[in-house]
Amino acid sequence: MSEHFLFFQVQSEKNHTWKAEGNTDHAIGQELNRSPHSIKTHTSTPGAIVEISAFKVELAGMFENLAERLLNSITDNDIEKLSAY
Q1: What is the DSSP string of 23-82?
Q2: Predicted pLDDT at 85
Q3: How would you classify residue 60: left for phi > 0, otherwise alpha for psi between -120 and 50, otherwise beta?
Q4: Contact 83, 74 (CB under 8 A)
Q5: Quick one: CA torsion of 68, 74, 76, 81, rounded to 10 degrees?
């Protein structure tokens, strides 16, 4: 594989991850030294859309599990300690 192809592949993975996290085309373009138009064109391809959607589902699952663990860790005793009113 050429060095250019490997560089593009790494940028592509970062681009998809950042897009799934909710970053704008402009912000991603600044990080990758690319124009926002190039980012939008790349993320609008059918393959990229599928990959970004998969990342979004994965991120949503991670945050859902984290939120559930945090809520389950709060006990009545913890709430009573905070009730200083």
Answers
A1: --HHHHHHHHT--HHHHHHHHTSHHHHHHHHHHHHHHHHHHHHHHHHHHHH--HHHHHHH
A2: 56
A3: alpha
A4: no
A5: -160
Dihedral pair phi/psi, residue 45, rounded to 5°: -75, 150
∠ Cα 54 8 50 (to 5°): 20
**Per-residue model confidence (pLDDT) at position 84:** 63
Long-range contacts (CB closer than 8 Å, 24 or more residues apart) made by 48-56: 48/12, 48/15, 48/16, 51/16, 52/16, 52/19, 52/20, 53/20, 55/16, 55/17, 55/19, 55/20, 55/21, 56/20
pLDDT in tens, 6-39: 446 667 888 888 888 889 999 988 988 888 998 8
| C-alpha Rg value of the chain to the nearest Å | 20
- Mean pLDDT, the chain, integer: 83
